[in-house]
Structures are given as C-alpha cells and as structure tokens.
C-alpha cells in the first residue's frame, strides 16, 4: 500500500550514475556492481547479491498503475477501516503494550499512528508482499523514471546483505519496501532499531524491530511528542470556506473563536492547525495539527495519509466520523479534464493522473474563489463546466 511514498533517503547517487538507466541490463548491472565495490562492499558479497538478479515486468506494471489513490476519502477509508481491523488494532496495542510504550517514551510517536500504519501496510504483518525485493529494486533502478531514488536503495540492500539482514529470497512490496511497516533498505540501514535485542534488524519477523523502526523514522521527520495530529470538528454554517486547506494555519484558539468545535474533546491550545475538508464542506471536517503533515513523509497520497491519521484517532478512542452528504466525486476522466483545464490556467497540478492530490486541491480552491463558488477545494461537475 505504501507504493506512492518513499521514505528518508540515506544515500544519494551522483548525477552521472543516476543517469545510467535503461539500455542493456547486463551492462547496467556491471556498473552498479562497480559502484558497490567502490563504496567499500566486499566483492564476494556484491557478486553473491547480484547473482541471478533480473528485471520484473510486474514491478513496472505496478509502478505505472496506482488507481487505488483515485478513490474519495469516504470510499477509501470505508474500504480500509473495518470492525475486524479495529479490533485487531486494539488487541495488538494490548499484546505489544511494552513495545508501544517504548516507542512513545524513546521517540514520542503515538501508538495509534504506529498501529494505523502497521494495519494499512501489511494487515499487522500478515500480508507483506510477494515481490522479490532484490529484483524489484534493480528493476526500478534500471528503469529511467526514478533511478536517482532506487539506485541508492539497491546499494543499501547490498550493504544489508553483507550484514546478514537481507536474504536474496526476501519478498515485499513492488516498490522494494520490506517488513511489517514497509521500509526501504536505505531507511532500515539509517533508522532501523534492534528492538528485540538479537543483534539484527529484521522488520519481516520481529514486531519490536518493526514498530520501533517505524517510530524512529517518523521522529526523524519531525514528529512532535505529546501532540495530536487530527481531530474531527463541527464547523458553523457561516464558516469562511476559503480558510480551509493545509496551506492556511491559525492557532487552535483562533479556530475555536470562529465557532469550530471538536467532537468529543477540545482544541489543542497553543498549536497551529488547519481545517481539512477531504470531501468538501458537505463531508467530514478535521483540524489538522503539525504532526499530520509529518505523515506525508510516510506516504505522499493525501487520501491515504488522511485515512491513516483518522484511523489512528479511532484506535485511540475517537468516535466514527460524521460522513455528511458530500457532492459526488468526479469520475477519473472528468478529473483529468479538470486538471488539464487548471494547468491551462497556469496552476501547478503535477501529473495529469485523475488523482485529487494536494496541488490539485489548492488549484481547485483558487478557481472556486475566482468564480465566487464555495471555496472548499472539492471539485464538482459545476466547477468543471464553468472552467
């Protein structure tokens, strides 16, 4: 599931090496071997690691098709969050209470967030992926779409292999992530934690290793201990929708003064926050704190991050959201057409992919403001027709 996100990069390929992609796979592989040896890896280890390595066409296919992130927040969250998954999360919180307590004490990361990612990434370790990790990494590093991202990950996997922490038959996600919380080799090398004290970092089989490594990763990206990340709120009818979105921050007290009410709680005093409307003014509303933005270092997808953050609040005792009755989501082709129209008006919407990401939302809100529509960043057929 973490396919769109790539965590902290610990090794950076030089521009020359990063440009070496595509073409004859054997020649390319020879270049990577030479780079690994030049970086200090033992030649025997390098030869053993790359022996039998080959491209995997399934990886390229998966990389080019990630339609799951085109779903709306309500659809996506209702698909991922079930009563069974909630029960398992609560049970695991109790079963591994000492591990989560350690994660909170040493890294300041809430067990709710760690449980949510553990659930969504691998269903608490049950589904860790069926792609050969070595072949997935060399496939993506050889491919010319993102070689500067994946070539360093290949070299990191070589180092892990030399340390006895990467078997050649290791299986994981199509994008090379490994283990219960799906981390890339470079992140494991830099941030992996030997939580069970066996001298190895094994995220596939050790719950303490996986949970504490995930916590350290989030802490490295600026997670703030003891602070919330998301609260569901009720907005007054007179609310100024143009103030919504992650690019607008006010203090929690200022929002409260405008009539924003937290469901089942109070605003976190003294913290900056944004009003988040994942499906516009007619759907659920949330107050997003600084820790919410940290989660985009785990996954770049807006709908994934919002769903994980919400699920984490449920695991910590929050009530189910008020779904409301939002306007229908645009079909994929209509969303692409909207993105094209927004881009033609000078907005940066990123790739024309039919996915309502953060940049598209900002552009939608700006056009809604220009046209005198409720500026809630939720695209409708009316907006598309007006453009």
Automatic annotation (TrEMBL):
<dbReference type="InterPro" id="IPR031304">
    <property type="entry name" value="SLT_2"/>
</dbReference>
<protein>
    <submittedName>
        <fullName>Lytic murein transglycosylase</fullName>
    </submittedName>
</protein>
<dbReference type="Pfam" id="PF13406">
    <property type="entry name" value="SLT_2"/>
</dbReference>
<dbReference type="InterPro" id="IPR023346">
    <property type="entry name" value="Lysozyme-like_dom_sf"/>
</dbReference>
<dbReference type="InterPro" id="IPR043426">
    <property type="entry name" value="MltB-like"/>
</dbReference>
<feature type="domain" description="Peptidoglycan binding-like">
    <location>
        <begin position="333"/>
        <end position="386"/>
    </location>
</feature>
<keyword id="KW-0732">Signal</keyword>
<dbReference type="InterPro" id="IPR036366">
    <property type="entry name" value="PGBDSf"/>
</dbReference>
<feature type="signal peptide">
    <location>
        <begin position="1"/>
        <end position="18"/>
    </location>
</feature>
<dbReference type="InterPro" id="IPR036365">
    <property type="entry name" value="PGBD-like_sf"/>
</dbReference>
<feature type="domain" description="Transglycosylase SLT">
    <location>
        <begin position="25"/>
        <end position="312"/>
    </location>
</feature>
<dbReference type="Pfam" id="PF01471">
    <property type="entry name" value="PG_binding_1"/>
</dbReference>
<dbReference type="InterPro" id="IPR002477">
    <property type="entry name" value="Peptidoglycan-bd-like"/>
</dbReference>
<dbReference type="GO" id="GO:0008933">
    <property type="term" value="F:peptidoglycan lytic transglycosylase activity"/>
</dbReference>
<dbReference type="GO" id="GO:0009253">
    <property type="term" value="P:peptidoglycan catabolic process"/>
</dbReference>
<dbReference type="InterPro" id="IPR011970">
    <property type="entry name" value="MltB_2"/>
</dbReference>
